[in-house]
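Sharing a chain and its predicted structure for anyone who wants a worked example. Both blocks are below, sequence first, tokens second.
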Amino acid sequence: MVAATVVAAASPSAAAERRWLEVKTPHFVVVANTSEGTARDVGWQFEQVRYVLETLWPWARRTGGRPFVVFALRDSSDMKALAPQYWEKGHDGTASVAVSGADKEYVALEAGVALPDDLRTNPYFFAYWSYAHHTLQDAFPHALPMWFVRGISKLFGNTLVRGKDVQVGRLLSHHLQDLNGSVRIRLAELLAADRKSPYFTDDTARETFDAEAWLFVHYLVFGDKGVHQAQLNRFAEALRDGRSPEAALREGFGDLAAVDKGFQYYVGNQMYAYSSIKGDLNVKPAGFEVRPLSPAAATALRAGFHVAMERPREAQALIEEARRTEPASALAAEAEALLLDQQDKRDEALAAYGRAAEAGSENFYVYYRRASLMWRSRPPKETMVQIAALLERATRLNPEHAWSQDSLARALAETEPGERAVAAARKAVSLEPSVASHHLALVQALWTASQEADARRELQTARVLARDDRERQSVQEWLDFMDRARPH
């Protein structure tokens, strides 16, 4: 089975022979072997989904980080070539799939699937689920309560774009069936469950948990004529401000017993609504930037998707195919570097990232990751200067990636203390204000810029935000260092 898959990937396929193009919308990149009109429409639909998500929940906003790439594929054979595991071991295939790569968020979908009026579950469910899920991860840098992230992602996954209207909250009938055939989870248990909970570690229990979380979020958004939406918003804002889940629950919902009573009535009454929201009419498909992709570029981009899907043989075959067409392909070098990095071949990955950079890569992650791999224990100053230059390139290509800004601030604090280091650290903090590490980068930048009073104040913020032993240890090391530096 594996050998046959590899041969198919290495051979010229129908997907490879078709013309590929790239469509850039304000917030997405669509890579397609469909018609240009279909590719533009896919990009437009994702823009509508983004707009409605942020309209419903202004706190659910992607702040940058990794690009979001959508593969729009002509038919199921192309989908099978890109995501073969969904056809293996007796599986029936899929019309959409989502995966996170080190440098990009990916969605792949079969364009043009019929969406009849009586549709129960959107065939693009996992595409929209993925967008909602990763948006939440971007908006809330720390781990989120399981019911919250899974419930909202499930609710939004079944979104339908109908012309100028976007329907949100359509029922997931299989979840209602799951709830009717299982013992209900008490609300207190639902709210307290984490990744170690049996509700998450057991596949059958997780299905019940997901159904319960989906319906609870459905109640908070649509139940009682939407009066609980404000409570959900307060809860989310408290989480984003760095409150613990327990404190956020108290701040957002107050009396949970009253919420539980209303939820039980909502479930028993079985009168479920959904919302139809006007899309963003200012976004015009005709205004999207479109360019053809060379065969090597299209092949290398698909190789990157296979790396993210952890299909190394298919990825390697496509990397080699791209190089046969274009030996100096920067995209092929990127895919190779990502593959080697995934395999923990650090020295080989470092060399491959270097080749990608020399070939003119415009992927911020190439420079960020190359700098990270070079930054080993106490590198000499000349190496730190090179690292800082790489990180400056990464932040120019993607100013919204908080960890590139964080790393640049630390590198400049060692090589060129002053306002540039402080500015990079402040940018990281502005992008992810509840991440203690970014505040510690600002502490270092301020201290080395001789702004000691500001550094001490910032350290207290980091102390409050520290979530794990590593962060708390870093805070304590700075406290000890500052105590030793204090005049006696």
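Comments welcome. The longest strand covers residues 68-73.
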